[in-house]
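Thread amino acids onto this structure.
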């Protein structure tokens, strides 16, 4: 793949940083390489207490995507560093081919909160250059074939340089006797709000051009492969009031002949062409559970602004009708639009999975919305991320609580009954979210990678269906050199704009691993319940508490240790055991 200016910048940052003095446990070695836990972010100054370690151990379900990292460091510059996996040989002559693996290289970007060059984007290069005395992560992603027989598979993983320096590792993969569902069938409900406009800006193509749609198809494929379930659509222009520095373009085109005046809503028309194409593209990629429509009132927070930008079909160009939620003119336009939206969604077969989305709106604002929806569109579902979740007249069909409301004991007592009742209802979703707060745990660029994997374990511990993050691809103007805008570094994105589509980030990979853990726990519970093994159900409860550990005065364990307890139950009870 050709390098873009973005990737060149990332590699430049990686290779041109000041050279360290060779300090650390592996100082003096010319070419050193060692395996590191995938939950630990590698920095340039990384070292190993056991640099001669040459074993990589993985275990997982058939169909699972597993990650491993090897760290390479040398006291002189490295040219042409690359990694290569052999075929893996398993039971009764079974083979997992090397083609089941991807080898990528973590790029480093500057993070203001820590003043550290930080590994996160996974560069899809054939090799990379590394400056002397700077650690470089080589990231191995292995997708276990869905038809892989249970058992242990063994092979080799090698890292080498153009100079001839090399290090070889034994790789042992245990395939457990169960199969992970396909990502679109995951029970875990992952909501990452998307911004197609951000993709166009980052890749410097025209919004809704064919070049843009080709890119969006690749982004959708990545989202589906990581288990995303919710489609984000903008049914008005700029529903988040340009909070990330630019507007989210609308997918539904509002039209009116001339300047809109109250009392003329019957002359409004709508074009759903972009909306339909985006929704279908995401559905085809496996993002299939819900369609979020933003927004009857702009967000987030207390604002009641609900402006409508529309195309003036008489004079040409765009105009804006300014209005506020609850006002007569607001009620008029939404009384006109919602029946049309309903009819269109029903015609497409999408109405049952569509929700009207709202972002952190307080009770005063949402009471106006609920009053209107109850009276005029009671069959529409409502989704609320933060803010007022509803009341006995109408609860949100999807409610997302902030993590602080979960971990605060007093607030949790208030919300726990709601979480239990919604979790028990297959037609409703209850999730939690993080944004720029809390500082920890989170999945910002300063956050330990463990915390990205942690989120599904928290959901499992407290009985949530899933997790929401407010944006996966709203890119700051200079994402490679300044990865923050108004909030913490990385707050607006989990992937990066590559030459031909998205580049995964380490946080995104660890979030997927946590989701797969959630699915494995579900499989293990079902097996233990079917077998009547109360001892193993207790063991799984202990695993969840261990894996969901947030604060500890002692060593916070790797989540992989908790997952190993889950794997032990599947190993004992799995259908192929």
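Threaded sequence (577 positions):
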């Amino acid at each position: 793949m050709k390098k873009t200016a973005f990737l060149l910048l990332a590699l430049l940052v990686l290779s041109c940083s000041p050279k360290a003095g060779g300090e650390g446990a592996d100082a003096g070695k010319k070419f050193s390489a060692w395996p590191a836990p995938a939950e630990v972010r590698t920095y340039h100054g990384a070292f190993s207490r056991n640099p001669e370690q040459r074993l990589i151990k993985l275990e997982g379900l058939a169909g699972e995507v597993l990650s491993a990292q090897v760290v390479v460091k040398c006291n002189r510059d490295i040219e042409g560093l690359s990694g290569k996996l052999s075929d893996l040989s398993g039971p009764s002559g079974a083979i997992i081919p090397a083609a089941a693996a991807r080898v990528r290289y973590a790029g480093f970007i500057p993070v203001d909160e820590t003043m550290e060059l930080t590994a996160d984007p996974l560069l899809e290069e054939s090799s990379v250059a590394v400056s002397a005395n700077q650690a470089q992560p080589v990231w191995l992603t292995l997708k276990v074939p869905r038809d892989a027989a249970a058992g242990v598979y063994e092979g080799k993983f090698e890292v080498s340089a153009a100079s001839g320096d090399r290090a070889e590792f034994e790789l042992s993969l245990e395939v457990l006797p169960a199969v992970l569902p396909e990502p679109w069938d995951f029970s875990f409900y992952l909501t990452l709000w998307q911004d197609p406009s951000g993709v166009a800006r980052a890749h410097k193509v025209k919004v809704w051009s064919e070049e843009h749609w080709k890119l969006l198809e690749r982004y959708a494929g990545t989202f589906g492969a990581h288990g995303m379930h919710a489609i984000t659509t903008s049914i008005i222009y700029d529903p988040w009031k340009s909070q990330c520095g630019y507007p989210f373009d609308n997918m539904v085109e509002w039209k009116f002949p001339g300047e809109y005046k109250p009392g003329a809503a019957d002359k409004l028309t709508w074009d759903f062409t972009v909306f339909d194409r985006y929704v279908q593209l995401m559905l085809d990629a496996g993002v299939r559970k819900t369609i979020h429509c933003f927004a009857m009132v702009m967000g987030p927070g207390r604002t009641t602004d609900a402006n409508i930008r529309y195309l003036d079909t008489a004079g040409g160009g765009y105009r804006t009708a300014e209005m506020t939620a609850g006002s007569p003119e607001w009620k008029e336009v939404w009384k006109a639009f919602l029946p049309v939206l309903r009819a269109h969604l029903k015609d497409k077969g999408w109405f049952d999975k569509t929700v009207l989305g709202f972002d952190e709106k307080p009770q005063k604002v949402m009471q106006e919305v609920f009053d209107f929806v109850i009276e005029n569109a009671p069959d529409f579902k409502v989704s609320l991320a933060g803010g007022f979740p509803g009341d006995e007249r109408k609860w949100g069909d999807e409610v997302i609580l902030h993590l602080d409301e979960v971990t605060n004991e007093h607030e949790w007592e208030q919300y726990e009954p709601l979480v239990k009742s919604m979790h028990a209802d297959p037609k409703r979703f209850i999730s939690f979210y993080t944004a720029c707060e809390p500082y920890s745990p989170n999945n910002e660029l300063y956050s330990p990678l463990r915390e990205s994997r942690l989120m599904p374990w928290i959901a499992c511990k407290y009985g949530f269906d899933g997790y929401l993050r407010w944006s996966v691809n709203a890119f700051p103007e200079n994402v490679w050199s300044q990865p923050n805008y108004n909030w913490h570094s990385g707050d607006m994105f989990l992937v990066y704009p590559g030459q031909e589509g998205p580049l995964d980030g380490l946080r995104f990979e660890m979030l997927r691993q946590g989701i797969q853990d959630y699915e494995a726990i579900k499989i293990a519970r079902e097996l233990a319940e079917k077998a009547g093994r109360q001892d193993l159900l207790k063991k799984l409860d202990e695993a969840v508490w261990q894996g969901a550990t947030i604060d500890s005065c002692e060593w916070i364990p790797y989540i992989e240790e908790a997952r190993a307890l889950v794997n032990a139950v599947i190993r004992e009870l799995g259908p192929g055991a």
